[in-house]
Amino acid sequence: MAVVGDLPLLVVLLGPTASGKTALSLALAERFNGEVVSCDSVAVYRDFEIGTAKPSAAERAQVPHHCIDIVSPEREYSAGDYQRDGRAAIAGIAARGRLPIVTGGTGLYLRALLEGLFDGPQRSEPLRARLRRSAARHGAGWLARLLERIDPAAAERIHANDKPKLIRAIEVSLEARRPITEAWTVGTQPLTGYRILRIGLAPERAALYQRIDARAAAMFERGLVAETERLMRKYGDERRVLYPRILDALGYRQARQLLAGELTEAQAIGAAQRGHRNYAKRQLTWFRREPEVRWLAGLGDDAAIQQAAMDAVASCRG
RNA sequence: GCACAGGUGGCCGAGCGGUUAAUGGCAGCAGACUGUAAAUCUGCCGCUCCUUGCGAGCUACGGAGGUUCGAAUCCUCCCCUGUGCA
Question: What ipTM did this prediction achieve?
Answer without folding.
Answer: 0.93
